[in-house]
């Protein structure tokens, strides 16, 4: 009776091993397969009878042998399980994701546990690999990370012009100012720019056309900037450009180049072609600027002088 109960229990155990929704692989110390459950059959396309007695590396020749052998040998020697997360290695076995229609990955993400199997005499000659399908967890985390990156990017970008917005501009100016204040020599320059008679554009053509004008100016300012320059929309029709490692004369040349390109540009709209000009004020930071506000105010004062002096020109605050 006990023998029959033991056989029934063994049958149940074997049935569960075959149908459990995790991969189970038992290897001997020569890396040969001795157990290969239904999960592994279904996802690999290799039957248990074909897998048994074969080297795991002959079944999956693309597996990094050196890496995995080191893991397996460590478990055999130390008799301690090893856990391999999908975040360390997306997958061990190159199984296709059966959620591929909705998944962000064609491959199944896997967590793998490698465990030693103790023999009755206390020796360890076999290992068990337990393979968990964590594709849902991994793809959900990837989707969340992607969404967070997009939200973070959107929080830094002006929606209309796709330039840096005011808050990100303020942060960049502060970082540059603080660096200068701590003795990290510049030169660094700040440019304030304002489209001439922009109110007239809005009044004559309407705000949608005014928005198009802002977008065209933003493109010109962006295309003329170097890597490391920081171009932003300050507010309304006003723009601000941070030019790190640029002295007053280099900043002035940049302003005049941008001013000339904007003057020569022909903006084609649904209400005809529009030509505009822009006024610019530029200031190189120096020790007289005790705060970022003073640096901004100096550049803004230079812009005001450009406006008062007839517009469509660049005025230096110093130098």
Automatic annotation (TrEMBL):
Alphabetized GO MF terms: diguanylate cyclase activity
Organism: Rhodanobacter aciditrophus
Xref: CDD domains: GGDEF
Keyword entries, A-Z: Nucleotidyltransferase, Transferase
Keyword Repeat found: no
Gene3D superfamilies cross-referenced by the UniProt entry: 3.30.70.270, PAS domain (3.30.450.20)
InterPro entries documented for this protein: Diguanylate_Cyclase, GGDEF_dom, Nucleotide_cyclase, PAS-like_dom_sf, Rev_trsase/Diguanyl_cyclase
Catalytic reactions of this protein: 2 GTP = 3',3'-c-di-GMP + 2 diphosphate
Pfam families attached to this UniProt entry: GGDEF
Protein EC: 2.7.7.65
PROSITE patterns, alphabetized: GGDEF
Group of enzyme by EC: transferase
Record protein name field: diguanylate cyclase
Every GGDEF domain range: 186-319
Source domain of life: Bacteria
